[in-house]
């Protein structure tokens, strides 16, 4: 009698969308308040945008998605606000809503890959160092907030 080999196939397919848990229903957070913003320390040239995460908006979903509000502020005072999610298992990002006049406007974009070395290095830093270390989502909003407050990001 022959025994079956217990090893996984050499050419295993990447995790498919069907294998991921169903996404939770969208619930937009309160618009960010200045007092709740936590700086994301990324080295950059003077005049570039600085990035902040609204600590009160971070949530670690049962669907493996970490959701948060990101604020990007230029030296000239211009700022962009977005409510985003990171799917840790697949390394993807989704923008759920954009801020307009202290109100949310829902976005219709889907999931897209977070690319290492891409133009949006802040997403790579959030993914790898704060929200999805080793492709595992933080267990709670407090865990993510603690990481943001204590650990400086490296540049990507």
Give the topology, please:
Blueprint: E1 37-40, E2 50-60, E3 65-73, E4 79-87, E5 92-100, E6 103-106, E7 112-113, H1 121-131, H2 141-150
Antiparallel strand pairs: 1-2, 2-3, 3-4, 4-5, 5-6, 5-7
Describe this structure in words.
The protein is an alpha+beta fold. It has a single domain, classed as Lipocalin. The protein is built from 2 helices and 7 strands; from the N terminus they run βββββββαα. Strands 1, 2, 3, 4, 5, 6 and 7 form a 7-stranded antiparallel β-sheet that branches. The N terminus is likely disordered.
Number of alpha- plus pi-helical segments: 2
- Percentage of residues in DSSP E strands: 25-35%
- Would you identify the CATH architecture? Beta Barrel
Report the average pLDDT across residues: 83
User: How far apart lie the N and C ends?
Assistant: 54 Å
Order of helices and strands: EEEEEEEHH
CATH level 1 class label:
Mainly Beta
What is the number of E strands? Answer: 7
Ranges with pLDDT <50 over ≥5 residues?
1-17
- Indicate the overall shape: globular
Structural class assignment: alpha+beta
Query: Which value, in Å, is the CA radius of gyration?
Result: 18 Å
Count of individual domains: 1
CATH topology: Lipocalin
Brief digest:
This protein has 156 residues and is α+β, with helices and mostly antiparallel strands. It has helices at residues 121-131, 141-150, and strands at 37-40, 50-60, 65-73, 79-87, 92-100, 103-106, 112-113. β3 (65-73) and β4 form a beta hairpin.
Key terms for this structure?
Lipocalin; 156 residues; alpha+beta; seven-stranded antiparallel β-sheet
């Amino acid at each position: 009698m022959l025994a079956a080999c217990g090893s996984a196939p050499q050419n295993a397919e990447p995790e498919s969308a069907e294998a991921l848990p169903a996404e939770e229903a969208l619930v937009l957070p309160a618009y960010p308040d200045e007092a709740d913003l936590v700086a994301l320390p990324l080295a950059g040239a003077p005049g570039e945008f600085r990035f902040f995460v609204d600590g009160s908006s971070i949530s670690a979903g049962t669907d493996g998605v970490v959701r948060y509000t990101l604020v990007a502020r230029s030296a000239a005072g211009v700022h962009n606000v977005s409510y985003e999610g990171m799917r840790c298992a697949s390394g993807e990002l989704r923008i759920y809503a954009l801020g307009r006049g202290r109100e949310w406007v829902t976005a219709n974009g889907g999931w897209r890959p977070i690319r290492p070395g891409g133009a949006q290095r802040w997403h790579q830093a959030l993914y790898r160092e704060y929200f999805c270390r080793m492709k595992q989502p933080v267990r709670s909003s407090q865990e993510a907030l603690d990481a943001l407050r204590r650990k400086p990001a490296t540049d990507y």
